[in-house]
Amino acid sequence: MTLTGVAAILSVVVFATSNDIPVGEMAYQKLWLGRMLFVFVVCCLLSFCLNRKNYLSFPTIVTWVLIILGGIEAIWGLRQIYGLAVSNHSLYALTGSFYNPGPYSGYLAMIFPLCLYEWLNLKEKTERTWAEQGKYYIALGVMLL
Q1: d(Cα 32, Cα 21) in Å, to the nearest integer?
Q2: What's the total number of domains in the chain?
Q3: Average pLDDT, the chain
Q4: Any stretches that span the bilayer, and where are they (predicted)?
């Protein structure tokens, strides 16, 4: 439950905006939060069905959800730089899913040490499982974004 639940909670922060909302318009925020509540409920129900045993600790789950969502935010920002996505503020070209570049850059700055820590921990292991190998490359890729 925890992995999908945490992913759903953190996705509300990342995906609470859309290109349907005009820049500066805040009236549709509750509509998007309602949609994200639906996503959260679906993810919680799936997690109850799929995860009957606890395989990962809660801090590990939170760390990896933050890393993955940081990668999504970094790609979103790159799309805004290259003109493939619209910025959420008329004065700034790069805002990610936020309305201001300050929280966006703060979120990405918070993700870098998490990626570095996980990457260094996984780098020390000589024989990694396929899941650890995937985590190694995800942490490296998000750190480089």
Answers
A1: 10
A2: 1
A3: 75
A4: 32-50, 62-82, 102-120
40: three-class secondary structure by DSSP: helix
**Which residue type, as a one-letter code, is found at position 78?**
L
Contacts of 43 (CB under 8 A, 6+ apart): 4, 5, 7, 8
Any idea which residue has 């290259």 for tokens? 82
Q: Using one digit for the tens of pLDDT, what is the confidence trace for 73-122? A: 888 888 888 888 887 777 888 888 777 888 888 888 988 898 888 888 88
pLDDT given at position 3: 60
pLDDT in tens, 100-111: 888 888 888 988
Domain span at residue 98?
Answer: 2-144
Task: Write b or e for each residue in 96-120: b if 16 or more Cβ atoms lie within 10 A of its Cβ, otherwise e.
Answer: bbbbebeebeebbeebeebbeebbe
* Distance (Å, whole) CA 119 – CA 140: 6
Place of tokens 């070209």: 93
Q: Which two tokens stand for residue 17?
A: 């905006």
Instruction: Give the count of alpha carbons within 13 A of 86, CB side only.
Output: 11
